[in-house]
Amino acid sequence: MSPRHVVVLGAGAAGVGTARTLASRGDTRVTLVARSDETPYTRMLIPGVAFGPLPPEAVALPLPEVDLVADTAHGVDVAARELRLASGSRLGYDALVVATGSRPRGLPPGLPGGAEARAAGLVHGLHTLADAVRLRERLAGLAAPARIAILGGGVIAAETATKLQTAGHTVTLVARSRVPGVAAFGAPVAERLAAEHRARVRTRFGRTVEAIAVVDDGVALELDGGERVAADLVLLALGTEPAAPDPWPDGVDVDGRLRAEAPDVFAAGGVAVHHDEVLGSWRIDHWEDAAAQGMHAARSVLHAFGVGEDPGVYLPRSSYLATVHGLVVSGVGAPACGRPRLDESEELVVRHELHGRIVGVSGIGAVGTVLQWSPRLH
Predict the structure, then answer these.
(1) What is the pLDDT along the chain (378 residues), one digit of tens a residue?
(2) How far is CA 39 from CA 128, 317, 374, in A?
(3) Could you please report the per-residue DSSP string of 177-215?
């Protein structure tokens, strides 16, 4: 009997985690499908390319010894169990793991002046390696200190503001929330970070951008209330959404074992929309959790083939770290899913609870205390 063929769609953290878990088995053939003309890379390292000394080739992602196809998938024919590829060819599978990750949210559709500002090269993202290379080149061409406006208030926005402020640039951080990061970290951590931002960069919290105008010396953001913010460059850090192929325009819904509704289809990472009894509906888009989901999906595939143990229900326990204005912010699990409760300790630690269970922990300057919760979550 020929080995079962598993196709892994996506060569980021989740896809490589899946492929690496399956690669050592002699009873499974693995094909890893990446985008056309793209060398897989470690996304968590791209700030080092944008703001630091790392050359693009330094963030290449080591791949397991599996078949690699660099041919962007245009869609999946779930009835025929085939991928439709950009080259026009089709790739069949016995099981498919969708691990295509996420795409960044852009400017609101129809925002006055938005298309013109982007066409002029004055609006940048920081989601891909190509984004990082373009941003580094753009910053190198600006007179220092440059005026940088960052739209967003989450982890990426906070870390980017920190790096640019440290490099001597004038940073304005614009966020719709009056206290950015509450959903992710809980109010105590988010309020501390907001105070640090106010002390070190210009902040416009609780504000929205109503228009963008290209002007002689850069761009002008018009905020609600009529205030204008002048900038040489606008960076977008507005979060992400699933980047799923057809027929899943809004991400791939999965159960606790990362199985989709389509037969023998699984999903992991930023593309997967989870539904379980503990957390309800949730999606996490950070590197460590994506890798963990990929490994879990691989074990679910093997169990479905009858050659592996049931891995059980996936619950997020992975950690993440961020440095914001010299403060080390850490977290494990799914803080956004629970209600925050300040831990009774001398350190700033927040436990996030749901239905009497701790589903996530976050903190500032308390990495050891936060990370020790990982095996005890849920």
Answers:
(1) 578 999 999 999 999 999 999 998 878 999 999 999 888 999 999 999 999 999 999 999 999 999 999 999 999 999 999 999 999 999 999 999 999 999 999 999 999 999 999 999 999 999 999 999 999 999 999 887 999 999 999 999 999 999 999 999 999 999 999 999 887 788 889 999 999 999 999 999 999 999 999 998 899 999 998 999 999 999 999 999 999 999 999 999 999 999 999 999 999 999 999 998 878 899 999 999 999 999 999 999 999 999 999 999 999 999 999 999 999 999 999 988 888 888 877 689 999 999 889 999 999 999 999 999 898 887
(2) 12, 29, 32
(3) SSSTTHHHH-HHHHHHHHHHHHHHSEEEET--EEEEEEE
Q: Which residues of 44-67 are buried (b: 16+ CB within 10 A; e: fewer)?
A: ebbbbbbbeebeeeebebebbebe
Four-residue CA torsion sign, 80, 83, 88, 90: negative
What does the chain come to in residues?
A: 378
Q: Dihedral angle at the C-alpha atoms of 58, 64, 67, 68, nearest 10 degrees?
A: -20
Joined together, the tokens standing for residue 8 give: 């892994």
Quick one: which of 216, 214, 221, 237 has its CA closest to 115?
214
Classify residue 159 by its DSSP letter: H
Helix (H) or strand (E) holding 170: strand 170-175
Residue with tokens 């490994």: 295
Measured between alpha carbons, how far is 107 from 177 in angstroms, rounded to an integer?
A: 16
Q: Please report where in the chains the tokens 């061409």 appear, as a residue.
A: 141
pTM of the model: 0.94
Interatomic CA distance for residues 90 and 297, integer angstroms: 23
Match 């205390």 to its residue by tokens: 369
